[in-house]
From TrEMBL:
Presence of the UniProt keyword Membrane in the record: no
Protein name per UniProt: Amino acid/amide ABC transporter ATP-binding protein 2 (HAAT family)
Source species: Rhodovulum kholense
Record GO biological process: L-amino acid transport
Stored PANTHER family: BRANCHED-CHAIN AMINO ACID TRANSPORT ATP-BINDING PROTEIN LIVF-RELATED, HIGH-AFFINITY BRANCHED-CHAIN AMINO ACID TRANSPORT ATP-BINDING PROTEIN LIVF
The organism's taxonomic lineage, starting at the top: Bacteria, Pseudomonadati, Pseudomonadota, Alphaproteobacteria, Rhodobacterales
């Protein structure tokens, strides 16, 4: 089988002390949605940072479209088409919504107005609030700003760390619908989710991480149907 579009392949590493990731693999195919779930402290955010180049791994590799990018800086990965929305501090709260989107396009030298329009089409509320400080928005709207900002580089891969953290179930469903829409445009989505059950419902592929290792890997559907996974990680 051909290699996935983006793969963090058997990654081992941590923050300088003991390793956090132990041969951990996560991957996503072109235009698909891959979801990483698992208990608190399992290393989900660490795996995302490793894939994005914010963490040195001393074994394993990261490859994008067949190219080894293991040694590239995060900035260089952005230039290669990767975008990352971290779990926290993912917007500039004192800047307006539109300024946040403009900041997202900092690497571009071409006309960004078309991309801003696309983001506003995806998230109409952001157009209404474009002149408001992003910090004044609701939690769900801020997450839209963060995702919209990430889309401004026109990435081929969008990485999201808990995009629905702290939002209501209705807002979560809405955000997941938008994420599906983004994937349908051909952008690969690699995301971490606390709302494991709902996220696996929309996942082409799911990864259950435990203590920095892969516990279960399968399609989202198969993981939801696996009695062991349900009992241990999905609350029955
Ligand atoms: N910046 C850091 N420096 C040192 N250890 C960290 C850092 N960030 C996370 N860790 C540790 O790495 C482990 C995995 O954390 P994390 O990847 O944030 O888990 P998750 O996202 O699955 O909740 C935890 O034991 C955590 O304490
Ligand atoms: Mg985390």
């Amino acid at each position: 089988m051909a290699e996935p579009f983006l793969i963090g392949d058997r990654m081992t590493g941590g923050y300088g002390g003991a390793d956090i990731l132990h041969g951990c693999t996560v991957a996503v195919e072109k235009g698909e949605i891959a979801v990483i779930v698992g208990p608190n402290g399992a290393g989900k955010s660490t795996a995302m940072k490793a894939v994005f180049g914010m963490l040195n791994i001393h074994a394993g590799a990261v490859r994008l479209n067949g190219e080894d990018i293991t040694r590239l800086s995060p900035q260089a990965r952005v230039a290669k088409g990767m975008a990352f929305v971290p779990q926290t501090h993912n917007i500039f709260t004192s800047m307006t919504v539109e300024e946040n989107l403009e900041m997202g396009a900092f690497l571009r030298r071409d006309d960004i107005s078309g991309t801003i329009d696309e983001v506003y089409r995806l998230f109409p509320i952001l157009k209404e609030k474009r002149r408001q400080a992003a910090g004044e928005l609701s939690g769900g709207q801020r997450q839209q700003v963060a995702v919209g900002r990430a889309l401004m580089t026109r990435p081929s891969v969008l990485m999201l760390d808990e995009p629905t953290a702290g939002v209501s179930p209705i807002v979560m469903d809405e955000l997941f619908d938008r994420i599906i829409e983004v994937a349908r445009t051909g952008i690969s989505i690699l995301m971490v989710e606390q709302n494991a059950r709902q996220a696996l419902e929309i996942a082409d592929k799911g990864y259950v991480l435990v203590q920095g290792s892969n516990a279960y890997t399968d399609t989202g559907r198969a993981l939801l149907d696996d009695p062991e996974v349900r009992r241990t990680f999905l609350g029955g």
